[in-house]
Amino acid sequence: MALVDVQRFSKHYPRVIALDDCSFQVERGEVFGLLGPNGAGKTTLIRLLLGYLRPTSGAARIDGFDCERQSVDVRRRTSYLPGEARLFRQMRGHEALDFFTRVRPGGESERSRRFAERLDLDLTRPVAAMSTGMRQKLALAAALAADTPLVILDEPTANLDPTVRAEVGRLVKEAREAGRTVMFSSHVLSEVEEVCDRVVILRAGRLVHEQPMEPLRKRHRIRAQVDGELPSLPPSLAEQVTIERRESRDVVLETAGDLAPLLGWLATLPLRDVAIEPAGLRAIYERFHGGTSSVRRQESS
Amino acid sequence: MNAALWRKCVREARWLLLACVAAVYAFCWVRVWMVSRLDTQRFEAILELLPGEWKKFTVVEMDWLITYAGRISLAFDEPIVVFGMSIWAIARGSDCVSGELNRGTLEMLLAQPLSRLQIITHQAIVTMIGVVCIAAASWAGTWTGIQATTIKEEVRPTWSLPFSMPGLGREVSRPWAARETRYTRMSEKVESHIFVPAAVNLMSLGTFLAGVSTLVSACDRYRWRTIGIVVGAYVVQTIFKLVGMAADNWRWLTYLSIFTPYEPEAGVHLAMTAPDLTWSIVKYDAAGQWTGLGPLGADLILIGGGVVAYIAAAIVFQRRDLPAPL
After folding, report:
1. Nearest chain A CA: its distance from B118 CA (Å)
2. Which residues of B touch A139 (CB under 8 A)?
3. DSSP of B195-227, one letter per residue?
């Protein structure tokens, strides 16, 4: 049974459709990415799963519990880091961590302190005197320290420096290795590519694409300039290679499999300035959000 | 009950509670001392000069109001005492939902396995403990004042008779003798327990304000707006009471004001003059006709209003969508 099962989830406001007919499943032990620009519906989806919002239609279950009617059971099995974590300003760092540990049955202070250490946090500081990045790290330590089967991270690396971002990536991978499931929402495609096993792309509240990452990691893009006409692809490569773009002398080829046969064919062509790169998530993402930022009103109303 | 949530609520509230308790306790003590500085008899002359219209603004007889007990009872109507309670109740009530939403901390709080009912209940219990503490501080301050204060009185010397005369007793005043100064303990003039109904009335007012503030907070997302709405309603209610008392044809306005059941001096008056009626729900005259609410009846209206508002707040909070922090 999938850990997260979302069926035709929708959230409509009087003048805004925040999420529309969204269905997907997240398997146990998977790192699942949510991609989309601001207002695409990522945060609304997460807030619906946690019971902050009531769905207009559809249903979702986490570990068999209904997200709307059994929200406390759902949150007992879920730890969540909001996009911009706001913590209790009158507490010190260690007091805030202790609070999040003790508020959950079976929480371990030592575990949360270990996470804080890895994130290079000064726990003696009052939360009110912490920078946005430090508060984000504190909330991240609290979220990861909770011993739950599901971790939902909504833009966890926003406001963090590059060193800590890399550490977050490592922590997510460790969570997966420990058998936990992670839902990871981010704008940073490289991060999603690095840690996720599967991503979904949201646009204007609709789930428009689902992409497993393993095949994508084998895809490569070859850019080059060609003098004269580009000959037709040999039949042996026709299934593996697509000519993505051809403008005057520029040519872009995409391949899904082993590069060796393609390179052999390319060597016979009059090519210049050849560059080979992983195709990556960007190409997929740009199919749905290329060049536009469909900014919609967030569900703040 | 969740111990961590309980500690968080206490931690957030403790300094405000301490300030309100200290202010109310100290003021009530000082207020008794101030009463002791002015001889009651001097008020009689002032009272005679006041136009009859003034009597409309009191719920007890003016003659009783100038006694030591009457003047001490007015401490519960003083702005410091009423505002001390109001500030606590409105500040805590407004913080319950819209305060946490406004600061963005509700997001992290509700990410934990806590129900919305648990969150509002913990907040409500801490607020109500504070309400009880402030009301207790008002009585404790009054008690301390009564125990610690000495009254300076100018009285005519008396003769002590070897027998008791009907209507005069053993002490008979010497009307032609010069007045002499005498010091008496306030506790010999006024009993502390008669102020308990006033403190309970103050607690009831706090319960009502806390409940209403929590209800507005449960519907709103900005704490400043919650406080604005409650304070606005508070001012309107005060105006209703004043206008209703001042003009006979606007008397019906007093029934719309929450300050009508808040009449602490009436409770003290009854505790002193008719102890049997101290905790009455309704009052009747000698002919058995209903004459109004007793002190307990007024308290129950305020407490009932507060409890209903708390229940409504819990229902609204359970059902509403929680907006993302801005």
Report:
1. 11
2. 108
3. GHHHHHHHHHHHHHHHHHHHHHHHH-S-HHHHH
Q: How far apart are CA B66 and CA B47, in angstroms?
A: 8
Calculate the CA B325 to chain-centre distance. Answer: 37
Best CA proximity match to B205, nearest among B115, B95, B84, B288: B84
Contact A242, A254 (CB under 8 A): yes
Q: Residue B260: give the domain boundaries.
A: 3-147+187-319
- Tally of structural domains, chain A: 2
The per-residue pLDDT for range A113-144, each reduced to its tens digit, is 999 998 889 999 999 999 988 999 999 999 99
More confident residue, A300 or B186: B186
Q: Does A94 touch chain B (CB under 8 A)?
A: no
For B101-111, b where at least 16 C-beta lie within 10 A, e where not — what string? bbbbbbbbbbb
The verdict on residue A171 lying in a domain is: yes
Residue from A103, A104, A155 to probe the interface with B (highest B Cβ count within 10 Å): A103
C-alpha–C-alpha distance, residues A105 and A83, integer Å = 25
Structure tokens given for A74: 């759902």
In a shared domain, residues A155 and A257 = no
End-to-end CA distance of chain A: 36
Q: A187: how many CB neighbours lie within 10 A of its CB?
A: 15
Say if the Cβ atoms of B115 and A91 lie within 8 Å: no
CB contact set of A76 (below 8 Å; sequence gap of 6+):
A104, A105, A148, B113
State how far the Cα of A59 lies from the Cα of B274, in Å rounded to an integer: 64
pLDDT in tens, B145-160: 999 999 887 777 888 8
Same domain, A205 and A253: no
Residue A78 counted as domain residue: yes
With 0-12 CB in 10 A as exposed, 13-18 as middle and 19+ as buried, what is B210?
Answer: buried
B4 and A CB contact within 8 Å = yes
A211 and A229 share one domain: no
In this structure, the answer to whether residues A129 and A268 fall within a common structural domain is: no
In which domain, by residue range, is A155 found?
4-215
Q: Report the length, in residues, of chain A.
A: 301
Query: Do A112 and A205 belong together in one domain?
Result: yes
Out of B110, B115, B324, the one facing A300 most closely (by C-beta) is B324
Q: Whole-model pTM?
A: 0.86
Question: Mean pLDDT for chain B?
Answer: 91
